[in-house]
């Protein structure tokens, strides 16, 4: 384990816990489960409630100003979601509105700390 991991893991968890919102669910979309008896695949999902902290923003803020296209940045503590790296298959539910994950940025040393998810409204 890298030196920074002993500091980074608890600090990351503490910050996410401090700003965690209850209206956020992270939905991990897993690989479909194949049933050889029926020959069918069934989608598989895992929902993590109150998964992290939310930071609303506007899509084109860097290009001259806000538009009507809203996106959110969400920071989740990866230990709280089973240390699984999020993907763009995943989605969020924030205050009853569905959001599609379009980008995943990780913070880590040798261990994973957090993931910052960029999501756009569906």
Cα(first) to Cα(last) distance is 39 Å
Principal-axes geometry comes out as globular
Strand order in the sheet with the most strands: 2-1-5-6-7-4-3
Structural class: mainly beta
Q: Strand portion, in percent?
A: over 45%
Radius of gyration: 16 Å
User: What is the N-to-C succession of helices and strands?
Assistant: HEEEEEEE
Give an overview of the whole structure.
The chain has 122 residues and is mostly beta strands. It has one domain (3-31, 43-121). Helix content is 14%, strand content 52%. It has one helix spanning 3-19; strands at residues 24-35, 40-49, 52-58, 70-77, 91-94, 97-108, 112-121. Strands 2-1-5-6-7-4-3 form a seven-stranded antiparallel β-sheet. The longest helix has 17 residues, at 3-19. The radius of gyration is 16 Å and the shape is globular. The relative contact order is 0.24. The mean pLDDT is 84.
Defining traits:
122 residues, mainly beta, 7-stranded antiparallel β-sheet, globular
Offer a quick outline of the entry.
With 122 residues, the chain is mainly beta. The chain is 14% helix and 52% strand.
Write the layout of secondary structure elements.
Layout: H1 3-19, E1 24-35, E2 40-49, E3 52-58, E4 70-77, E5 91-94, E6 97-108, E7 112-121
Antiparallel strand pairs: 1-2, 1-5, 3-4, 4-7, 5-6, 6-7
């Amino acid at each position: 384990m890298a030196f920074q991991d002993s500091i980074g893991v608890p600090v990351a968890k503490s910050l996410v816990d401090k700003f965690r919102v209850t209206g956020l669910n992270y939905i991990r979309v897993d690989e479909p489960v194949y049933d050889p008896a029926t020959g069918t695949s069934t989608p598989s999902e895992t929902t993590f409630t109150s998964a992290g902290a939310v930071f609303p923003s506007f899509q084109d803020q860097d290009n001259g100003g806000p538009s009507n296209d809203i996106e959110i940045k969400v920071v989740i503590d990866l230990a709280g979601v089973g240390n699984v790296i999020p993907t763009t298959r995943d989605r969020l539910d924030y205050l009853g509105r569905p959001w599609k994950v379009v980008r995943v940025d990780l913070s880590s040393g040798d261990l994973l700390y957090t993931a910052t998810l960029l999501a756009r409204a569906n």
